[in-house]
Structure formats: C-alpha cells, structure tokens
Amino acid sequence: MKEVIKIEGGHPLEGTVRISGSKNATVALIPAAILANGPVTIVGVPNISDVSALQQILEVQKVKVIHKAEDHIIIDPSHMENVDLDHVAVTKLRASYYFMGALLGKYKSVRIRMAGGCYLGPRPIDLHLKGFEALGAHVEYDQGCYHIWAEELVGTKIYLDFASVGATINIILAAVRAKGRTTIENAAKEPEIIDVITLLNKMGARIRGAGTNVITIDGVDELWGCFHEIIPDRIEAGTFIIMAAAAGKEMTVENIIPQHLEALLSKLDEMGVDMDVKLDRVTIHGGSKLKGVDVKTQTYPGLATDLQAPLTVLLTQAEGRSRVTETIYPERFKHCYELDKMGATTEVTTPKATIFGPTKLYGVDVTATDLRCGASLVVAGLIAKGVTTIDQIYHIDRGYDNLDGKLQALGAKIWREQIED
Ligand code: EPU
Question: What residues line ligand 1, using a CB cutoff of 6 Å?
Fold first, then answer.
C-alpha cells in the first residue's frame, strides 16, 4: 500500500491562509544551534518531515530536543557527542550537510554520509569543500562518507564562483569559531541566510554583511543559547499566492514578508493578477484574465527557482506563449512532463521551457518527482477537471506544513488515500 494525495478540481479557494516558518531557514538553523553551549529556543518551526529527519540526527548526537508547543522547540546541545553521522536520516535531505560546517566549527572534525534531497540534476558541493579547505581543513571522501578535520581553522578570504546558498551557510558555520577573520565574497543574499546569521549573532557570533554579497565573520571562542523566531516561508507563501491566482475567488495569504516575494509579485502583476499587498499579507482577487510572460529564475532578489514549477502551472492558464529560463538548476523541469500528462502544452529544451496557453487541465495520475514538482501538481489539481492523483507525496511532506489541511480550510477538495502499490 502507498499513500497518495487526491484532488477534485474546480472548487474555488476562499478565505485566509497563514504561512508557516521558512523550511530552508529552519533546516539550517537547527544544525547551527548545536554550536551553542546551552539551550537554543526556536519558534515558528514548520511541521515537515525534513525537521523530523534533522531531529533524528540530533538524537544520534545526544542533543536534547524538547517540543514546547507545536511550532516551538528547544535544542539543548549541552551534552552532545560528535558521533559519526552515518544514520539513514542524513540521506533524507540536502540540508544534513550543514552538520559538516557546524561540527567542523565546533569539534574541528566531522564524519558524515553524503546528503540526500531532491534530485534537480547534479548538485555538487565543491564550493562548500573548497571553503572548508581554505579555512585549513582536510577533506577525505571514502565510500559515500566525508571525513573533514582540521588541527586549527584560520580565517581567510573565500571567493565563491557561484553565490551558493548552501556553501555560504556552511562556510559561515565553520568560520564562526575559527581564528581571526573570514571574508566570503560573492556570498548568497537569500533571506534564509540573513535568518541564520541573525541566530548566530544572538548566540554571540560576530558576523557582518548579512544580505550583501560580502560577509565578514570574526571568529569567537564561545557561542551560547538564545531565543529565535524563524522568518515566514517565502516559497510556501509564493505557492499559495499562485494557487490563489489560479483557483482563488478572494484569498488572503498572511504572515508574509512582501519584500521577500517582490520578483514573484511583479511577475504576477505583469500577468494581470489582481492583488492588494499590505505590510504582512496579500489579498488576491481571482478570476482575472492572465497573459503569458517570460520568466527567468535567479539568485535572490531574482525569481526563486523553488517557485518556478508552481508558476509554470499558472502560465498554462495564461493567454499566449510563455518562456521559462532556469539559471539555477538547468534540469529542473520534470514537472513539465507531469503537467503535459494533465493536458498542458510545454516544450522543454533545457535550460528553457516554453508553455503554450491557455490549456484545459484534466485530472490524471501524476508523480511528485521532487518537492516543488509536487507543489505544482497540487496547483494543477485544484484547477483540473476531475480527480488528480499524486504519487510519491513524501516529497511534498518534506517541505510543506499541512498543505492539504490548509487547502481544505480554503474550500479545496483534497484528501489522502491508501492505495495498492
Ligand atoms: N553549486 C555548485 N557547487 C556547490 C554548491 C552549489 O556548483 O558547491 C551549484 C548547484 O549545483 C546549483 C547552484 O549552485 O546549480 C545553486 O545551488 P545552491 O547551493 O545555492 O543551492 P542549495 O543550497 O543546494 C538551496 C535550497 C534549495 C534552493 C536553492 C536555490 C536548501 C536546503 N535548499 O539549495 O531549495 O532551490 O538553495 O535557492 O536551502 C527546495 O526548497 O525545493 C530547494 C531545492
């Protein structure tokens, strides 16, 4: 037996949805917390399986995790041990690689299995490793495991060939307790990185330049516990805004930071979506006639690659030809093949896809090949004629907190079912 999500399309969304804490911030904040010498309280933790996997890793390391409330955890690394991380949970998500930087920073040594996560084409970690080596670490790779160690970590200047989110965070985690100053040039500027730096500075780190492409870290001897509230998830917010534009009557998406969504909101405006943007919410008035546009994913503040798949669904409903260019993960177009099964007309020639719209979508059996593909199939299911069945939904559960529950509250007909394998 396996669990699938089923959606009966054609029920308009109405009401208000509250956005959870950012997945991609959380999965870095949890490994960052182990650098403290006392309890770190984090509020706004989304209920997703990536967090459960990280918690399993913490338990292996004898880090105490207390759930104070549904979205409120205390991570207490006071009695932690630097055990080898060959637990299967490491392979469940990409972000387990943040334990490389955090454990290297704390203990000057880490043994860890290769991280997992969504397959979006090749996802090398050469920039992370080069960063560790520049700080004085040695890297060995043997049979799927990394051993990274240093006699001493010494601050230096590191230029990233690409403004990688993961490499920027991992190098920061390793450098916070290094000797002297580390400067990361061409650093990534994503809001999740600012959130991690905010936490680390509350813990006693001395990091400047968050949100710019030059980050300076002055190493400190000790980091302590603190309280931190996670920023709202801009990708979950963007997904719901797109759902509202595709299937909404009148819908409000609240607990957002509109500035984090500027590229998406201006693209939707260009398409003809009717929206009112307020301080921490956006109301979308559905039913507008949409026109096709060209979009290009870029590093922040450009359009997030994680919103490309859901946005592609909206483009299938827009008049005319739209072109999507993917500059972050050139092969991230598996959703197009699934959408074509539902009636979309897309042409993929990586790193681009052309979408011809508007096309009617029909409920069929489709597969969530990765997290954001899964989200895009939910968007498509909401507007499709008939029932859409989505397989491999563990991808969706990795990154969306109660997606089906939130949609049910907005009037969608979406449910889970156990079916024969
Ligand atoms: N890259 C390298 N070498 C490296 C690191 C990255 O060549 O050492 C390349 C990647 O192959 C990719 C590009 O640089 O082509 C961008 O990768 P980046 O390191 O910025 O991405 P990431 O840290 O692996 C995070 C998010 C992704 C999101 C990207 C881009 C987490 C856990 N993951 O991945 O989120 O797409 O940044 O914003 O934060 C998702 O949430 O669905 C997701 C995949």
Answer: 24, 27, 94-95, 118, 123-128, 162, 164-167, 188, 305-306, 328-329, 371-372, 399
